[in-house]
Amino acid sequence: MLDYLTIGTIVNVHGVHGEVKVIPQTDDVTRFKKLKSVLLFGSGARRKIDVKGVKFSNKFVILKLDGIDDRDAADRLRGIELQVERGDAIKLPEGRYFVGDLIGCTVFEDDGNELGRIKDVIFGAGSDIYDVDCGNGKNILIPVLEDVVLSVDIEGGIVKVKLPQGLREIYL
Hints:
Blueprint: E1 4-14, E2 19-24, E3 37-42, E4 45-57, E5 60-65, H1 71-75, E6 81-85, H2 99-102, E7 106-109, E8 114-123, E9 128-133, E10 139-143, E11 149-153, E12 158-161, H3 167-171
Parallel strand pairs: 7-12
Antiparallel strand pairs: 1-2, 1-6, 2-5, 3-4, 3-6, 4-5, 7-8, 8-9, 9-10, 11-12
């Protein structure tokens, strides 16, 4: 399991007073209102910085960070990930998982056949989708539905699925 969880990425500046525009990577954007500080992660290094203000604009979160007081300073943060330590992460309801914990999990069919490893989670309108690298140059997209995903063991790194009829033939 990851020690740090990414909650957003700085994609642009907002205004001239050092605010940054963030694409949130969390189901609950209101979690940003509770942030006292955040970890800036880029080029392999992390730096803790206090959050001085939070606003919401369309699909973006606008943050005012301590010590970032002009447009140029904010612009230098473009592409930086915002992270929190696992202990500071929001508590997830039963059956929900952090994407970073799912990446790399091995996916098995209910009969024990290994499909591959989760390389990404795609957020869809109807359901999320696991993008599984089958290791043979192919990927399989598995919908995250109650009757498809049978179990998730984050500690063991294993996800068990029952593929819908026809999905196996399409991808494998």
